[in-house]
Amino acid sequence: MGEVQPLPSRGFFEAIKLLATDMDGTLTCQGKFTAALLNGLEQLQAAGLPTMVVTGRSAGWVNGLAHYLPIAGAMAENGGVYFPPNAAPELLVDIPELVAHRQQLRVAFSELQQRWPQLHESDDNRFRLTDWTFDLKDLSEADLEAMANVCQTLGWGFTYSTVQCHLYKRGQSKATGLLQVLQRHFAPTTSAEVITLGDSPNDESLFDPTLFPHSVGVGNVKDYWHQLNYRPAYVSQANEVDGFLELVNILTSKN
Fold first, then answer.
1. Are 86 and 154 in contact (CB under 8 A)?
2. pLDDT above 90 (res 11)
3. Which residues have CB under 8 Å from 65's CB, separation 6+?
4. Once rounded to an integer, what is the mean pLDDT over residues 202-208?
């Protein structure tokens, strides 16, 4: 258990009705979108397989992506906000007062800065509603583990991706958000009919086999393998967007 299993070359997930994929480190190449990514998304659309972006990026950034990319919807802030196509955004976390919530997150971030004064807010933090983010740069694995413990003591959740760290309300995750979205917008599709795709610790809930039995990691997920309690069922050979395209080719193959 826990060994890396490569993607099967054929007969793969025939009953799948939705692909839910992370963005940074999964759909990107060195932090950027490529023409090949757009082609892959269009291939899935032409094959009749809807794609949902499930990212930790801010609501402000994801609002635009949901409008311009050929996708069936987009979830921001690790399960905090959902952007359905051609409809108003939906809050997925019970937060009665968003302004007060963000102020509380700011206080928690200040607590972390007292111990790690080098911390800086992420570029997209100003566009967030449900969480608070700061740059991952120059933080060791020991730092990240210590931060998680401090946040737990303060009553907050903590996770990180390839690009940033997140403070958030406990219980908020990509998995809990995705399950809500499935029920609201994709019924009768179940979690057993979804492929989840990711690359880092903030995708870990999408790798929980009791919730999403068909999970895939792009090749660079192996960089975090020993840090994950839940690991993807399969891993692509290629990294980042090339790993996504590897999956697309299998899902759209006629063989």
1. no
2. no
3. 23, 53, 57, 71, 74
4. 98
Residues of 79-111 as b/e, b for ≥16 C-beta within 10 angstroms?
Answer: bbbbbbeeeebbebbebeeeeebbebbeebbee
Q: What is the 3-class SS of 3-69, one letter each residue?
A: CCCECCCCCCCCCCCEEEECCCCCCCECCECCHHHHHHHHHHHHCCCCEEEECCCCHHHHHHHHHHC
The pLDDT of residue 37 is: 98
Q: Characterize the bridge pairing of strands 214-217 and 234-235.
A: parallel
Q: pTM for this structure?
A: 0.95
Domains within the chain, CATH numbers bracketed: 18-92+172-251 (3.40.50.1000), 98-168 (3.90.1070.10)
CB 81 within 8 A of CB 75: yes
99-126, pLDDT tens digit by residue? 999 999 999 999 999 999 999 999 999 9
Report the alpha-carbon distance of residue 115 to residue 91 in Å, rounded: 32
Q: What is the DSSP string of 220-231?
A: GGGGGGGG-SS-
Please name the residue ranges forming H helices in 85-211.
98-115, 141-154, 174-185
In three-state secondary structure terms, 241 is helix
Neighbouring C-beta atoms of residue 123, cutoff 10 Å? 13
User: d(Cα 55, Cα 78) in Å, to the nearest integer?
Assistant: 6
